[in-house]
Design brief:
Elements: E1 4-10, H1 17-25, H2 28-32, E2 37-44, E3 52-58, H3 61-68, H4 71-80, E4 89-93
Antiparallel strand pairs: 1-3, 1-4, 2-3
Length: 108
Amino acid sequence: MSEVLVVAVVVPKEGQEKAVEELFSSLVEPTHAEDGCLTYALHRDKRNPGQLVFVERWENQEKLGGHINADHFKNAAAKSAEMLAEPIRIHILEPVPMGDAAKGALFG
């Protein structure tokens, strides 16, 4: 199985930005300890500071599935339901390498 790259976009309701950031920040440490987690990095959109973006790399789809089924993830997802303006947009990506192999993909 090959690595999996995930980009997840979180859009809080107006007035919920700080609470959502605190909630999703609490996922970082336990997720870093999960088997198969290669990268789990939370970012803030510079053009829309309330919006959060996770960039994740997992050893394989099975390890990603373990994360999605982890209690800390399920609890945060349930707590966030009323605080979000829209469902979390999860993009599971595969590289389309082009040009310089070292620069044309994040993995692969």
